[in-house]
Each structure stands twice: as C-alpha cells, then as structure tokens.
Amino acid sequence: MRTRDVFSYSFSSIKLRKLRAGLTTLGVVIGIAAIVALLSITTGLQNTITVQLETGLATDTLIVSPGGGVFGGGQEGSHFGGGVIGGADSGFRLLINDTQIINDLSADILTSIATIQRSGYINSTDHERMTTIVGVEFEEYKSIYSTTFVSESDEIPDTPTNDTIIIGKRVKERQNGTVLFTAGEDVQIIWTNATARPPQNESYPGHVVAVLQEVGGFAFGGPSDNNIYIPIATAQEFFNTSECETIIVKLANSDQATIDAVSKAIVNEFAGEVSVISSTAVLNLLGSVFSIIELFLVGIAAISLLVAGIGIMNIMIVSLIERTREIGILKALGMKSRTVLAIFLGESVIIGVIGAIIGIALGWMLSNIVAAVLSSGAITIGPGAGAGASGDLLSIAPVLTPLVFLGAFGFGVGVSVVFALYPAWRASKLKPVEALRYE
Question: Which of 1, 45, 141, 335 is deepest in the core (most CB within 10 A)?
Fold first, then answer.
C-alpha cells in the first residue's frame, strides 16, 4: 500500500471520529501553544532587556563598589556583584580620592571618576518628584558616556557652578507627557539626612541648566532618565561626605583580557574589599539566566504536552478496540501487519501536524497579546515605577525564532507518534481470525 493511500485511509478514519480526534488534537494544541508563547515572550524580553542594558552600559568601563565577594561567573580574576555573599559588611568604604590610586594601577586605565548617590526630591513651586541625586565630575563623566550624557537642547557645562543641575528626561516629564521641570528653572534639592538625630530634611537651591536626551535602558553606572546630576564638589558639601558609592573606571579597550587584568589589579589593591563589575559580565550573566529560565519554561510546557500524549495513547487504544473487526477484515483481505501499523501511525502524524500548526499560530497570537498588555503600561520598570509614579514602559516584541518554530513542530509530531507506537503495534499484531470473532 502506497504512502499516499496510507495517509488517505488514516485521514478518512479521523474524519469519521471528528469529536474524538478534535479533543485529542486540542491537547497537542495547548501544549505547543504554551511552549511557543512562553519562549517567544522570554526571547523578546531578553532582547529588550539586553538592548536597554547595552544602552545604559559602556563596554569599556568597570564599576567599582565597596564589598568583597564574587557573584556569578567569569574569567579568573573577575569579580562581579556588589556586596559580600553570605558575609557581614566589613565596614570598608570607597573614598573619592581612591580614583588616584586606581588611575596608577595600569596603563590600560584611561581615567576613573567617583560618584556620590542619594535618594531625594527635586522641588519647584508647582511640582515635586522623587529622584536619585548623583554627584559626578561633569567633564569626565561626559567623556566616558559621550553618547548618553547629552543634553537635548542646552550644552552641559564642563565647569559647572555650585548650583548647576542636570535632570533626566523622566524627571522633566511624566510618561504621559506632563512637563514637571524645564531647563532654566530654579528648584530645591531635598534629601533626608538619616545620620542626624532626629533625622532631618536638608535642602539647597539649584538651577536646572539642561535636560538629558532620553536614554532609555537601565542605569548601571551610566546616565539614567530618572536621575538628576550635580557637581561632585556640591554633593560632597551637601551630603557632608568624602565617601562615594561607586568608582567608574574607563579602560583603553573592551577586550576580555584587559577587563580581567584590571579587575584583578583593583581587587588586589583594595585587599578584596571591593567588587568590580564589568558590562560584558552583566550581559553574559543575563544570557545565562535567561537560558535557565527558558529551559524551565519549556519543561513546564512540556508537561502539558506529555499529558496530551497520554490522551493520544488512550484514544488510539480505544480506537483499536472499536476497529478490531475492521482490522481483522483488512488483514483477511491480505493487508500486511506493517500497513496496519503505518495506518495507525499515520493518524497520529496527522493529529500531531494539525495540532502543532494550530498550536504555533495560537502561541504566537498569545505572545503578542501578552506583549501588548505589558507594553501598555500594566508593568513598568525603573526607579520611577510604583504607585503614583511614572516608570519606563517595558516594551516587548515577541520573537519566534526558526529554532523555536521547528522545535515546537517536531516536538508536537514526535510526542504524537511516540505515544501512538504501542496502540499501533498492538493493532498490527492482531490475528485475523481472532479479530473477526471480536464483538
């Protein structure tokens, strides 16, 4: 019996039992749709976060912060993270003048700058907004982040006055376009001094000289749409400190060997009391995390597909029992056992193909619906997220890769065939005489 005839006979058998075949196919559809939707959303989310991280990162920079320990993985001598893992705070703090020590460690270090950060408020006559106050050396910060620390209109001064303030795009206006602050406006900067007893609010008047172009992405040492920037000398005086939260190190290049060598030199210089985070390490770690997440999600979705496979086996066995006399007649007329086997497997292939195709289409539609919900503002990210705040929208574009498409299709058909093997084998082994006697 030709292959075309086998599939034609199998398809006719399916049409005679439309409801049962439909319910069997539905199990495959649900499993494949779950796999495609989850993987498409996860891949799209990974691409979105990676792009945003790359926007906020400079691959030729290192971020030095207090606290020893290793987080994640990397080359020997690379230290990632910000804090002691499983240990107590040693009390070590970075000082602004530590940049001079770092600059002398290697010829691959072009420069380093300290940053002071505090949570606070920017206040005008009509508006108030919570923000992060960042003290930096404007000229060097602008040279390190030359593509993101850029004003949308006015020039950022290299030698700012004490009251100079640069604000991020999200500080200037809310997501809906409502303008809160503008360049040229006089404002008050407020922060709560928790070291005082009792804690008290401290403020000083400032002048907004520029608004940054929209950066997007996440703040990781670099400029953020949700921060305001003041001269580091002003920050020292305002916050009454010579300590800094991070030191940004500009390297001669972004080669992994350079990153590893400089990271190791910095950690050794400070006797393991600091952590050094590289942009490339963050991106690599992100990729590893998403790979684990994808594997986990596929496993969850595969469970539903395996349940569907058991349903396929059950239906095929029921079909075998119902068609015992039919099989006996076919074998009595000379049909070979392998042809009977092929007919039953053909039915499972047809169910798997139809279920996989519908499942892939349904999964793709579901992923786009979920992405639209996320991108509509139901979920926000960034420091501005929260009640009454305006965070950056998490815009996700689902991605259906050829690997996911072919894998889902093959998985759907494969599960259908595997779980139909036993019923098909039993059908092929029926003896004509016993089959004809069956009622």
Answer: 141
Assigned token pair, 370: 């979920």
**pLDDT given for residue 438 in this prediction:** 57
Torsion of CA 63, 67, 73, 76, to 10 degrees: 80
DSSP string of 290-305?
Answer: HHHHHHHHHHHHHHHH
Q: Using alpha carbons, list the distances in angstroms from residue 298 to 35, 37, 255, 435.
A: 6, 10, 35, 42
Please report the pLDDT score of residue 435 as a whole number.
64
> Cα torsion for 285, 289, 291, 297, to the nearest 10°?
-170
Query: What are the residue ranges of helices labelled H in 74-128?
Result: 98-103
Choose among 148, 184, 144: nearest CA to 53.
148
DSSP reduced 3-state for 113:
strand
Which regions in the chain score pLDDT beneath 50? 69-88, 378-392
Which residues, 6+ apart, have CB-to-CB distance to 291 below 8 Å? none
Q: How many angstroms separate the Cα of 273 from the Cα of each of 80, 92, 195, 268?
A: 12, 7, 24, 9
Measured CA to CA in angstroms, residue 47 lies from 221, 246, 325, 332, 398 at distances of 21, 27, 57, 60, 9
Q: What is the DSSP letter of 417?
A: H
Is-contact 393 407, C-beta < 8 A? no
